[in-house]
Design goal:
about 400 residues; mainly alpha; about 75% helix
Length: about 400
């Protein structure tokens, strides 16, 4: 199966779409120093500000890293096929790939964004690799069990905390640390990233690990069964999943949004997170199958063609997003953290994403891989891939 095969265009386009959602969430970690704390930003209390934050929480938060995780699991099956075509041993290649991903993730977390998810993928990917011989059916059961277990545990912890009367922790110190770091110079920002990376990495393992791994297994099962390469089967499954998953996902997202934005009670935040873990995969599935159905229309095919270059350069674009957000909001650049109203922050998302789409198309006309993909492929294959694309023949 060639990476350039048209049947993989939908996978690349889904990955590009996931990057849009990830940008729509990650931008708040830079733009709003109160983001992911218990207290609301006192500068963002207008009805419009609250509406913007509600839209982001309802439609984006905790949904798109799951889609990215599903596609990560799917990509493992593509790597298995690539190793077979190359006549190379699969596990040595994949262990080098995971090591490279871990190294890039650690550097990303230390230098640019302590909310990095690549290191988590590198570590959890080892579990998936150890289970690579599971049948698609068993992989689906494993994935669903992980999704159910993680959400149930956090929901139960929230209920127990509420019954025991756990009090809210003051998040003012963390807010002031972000303000000082992002409003200072580049050294202040670097020190903040480096000081908070280990804590943030532990947070992501604890809070997102089970769901990410669960989606790994579901993506792996889809890849092993060739689901995204079978249009008729995909249509039959997709219609059923979309009809049931969309209302369930929106209902859970509504509860999550109401509890996290309307209250500072830590116990309700924990319960809201548990609800989100249990229901966000449904909305993620609705997004994915809905988009795959859209790709079959004339307008959807144009959208697929536009998103695919982003997905082909997903690693480079993920790192590029962090670099751009640092230049805009931290001491590495303009220091706009806490300076833009929520509507302006949200408006930055399509502008930045559109610029990345244009740059990705331009880059892939001239190069075989994105810069990040080139590095990771070199580590994976223990060789230097070609850098430029072969010139088109003249007629």
């Amino acid at each position: 199966m060639s990476p350039a095969s048209p049947r993989l265009l939908n996978v690349d386009a889904l990955r590009g779409f996931a990057l849009l959602g990830i940008l729509a969430v990650n931008i708040w970690a830079f733009a709003d120093p109160y983001y992911a704390t218990l207290g609301p930003n006192p500068a963002y209390l207008s009805a419009l500000d609250q509406a913007v934050r509600s839209v982001v929480a309802l439609l984006f938060e905790s949904k798109f890293y799951l889609l990215f995780s599903f596609l990560f699991g799917y990509s493992v099956t593509l790597q298995m096929s690539a190793a077979q075509r190359a006549g190379a041993a699969f596990m040595p290649r994949m262990l080098r790939r995971q090591a490279g991903l871990l190294g890039l993730g650690v550097l990303h977390g230390l230098l640019l964004y302590n909310g990095d998810i690549m290191a988590l993928y590198a570590l959890l990917g080892l579990i998936l690799l150890a289970c690579r011989h599971r049948t698609p059916r068993r992989a689906v059961r494993t994935g669903c069990a992980l999704l159910l277990t993680g959400g149930t545990i956090w929901l139960a912890l929230g209920v127990l905390a509420w019954l025991s009367g756990v009090e809210m922790e003051d998040s003012g110190q963390e807010v002031q640390a972000r303000l000082a770091a992002y409003g200072g110079n580049a050294l202040h920002t670097l020190r903040y990233h480096m000081a908070h990376w280990a804590e943030a990495a532990s947070f992501f393992i604890l809070f997102q690990g089970s769901n990410a791994l669960g989606m790994f297994f579901l993506g792996f099962a889809a890849g092993r069964s060739g689901l995204l390469e079978q249009p008729q089967r995909l249509d039959a499954i997709g219609r059923k999943v979309f009809l049931y998953a969309l209302p369930l996902g929106l209902a859970g997202a509504s509860v999550y949004t109401a509890l996290t934005l309307q209250t500072a009670d830590v116990t309700l935040h924990i319960m809201a997170f548990g609800v989100s873990m249990l229901t966000a995969p449904f909305l993620t599935a609705a997004y994915g199958f809905g988009l795959l159905a859209l790709f079959k229309t004339a307008a959807g095919q144009r959208l697929q063609q536009a998103l695919a270059p982003m997905g082909k350069m997903a690693l480079s674009n993920y790192l590029g997003q962090s670099a751009l957000l640092n230049l805009m909001f931290t001491g590495y650049g303009l220091g706009w953290s806490n300076q833009l109203p929520p509507l302006a922050v949200l408006a930055c998302v399509p502008a930045l994403f559109g610029a990345q789409m244009a740059l990705s198309r331009w880059w892939l006309r001239r190069h075989a891989y994105g810069p990040g993909e080139w590095v990771l492929r070199a580590i994976t294959t223990a060789s230097a891939p070609r850098w430029t694309r072969d010139p088109a023949p003249h007629h």
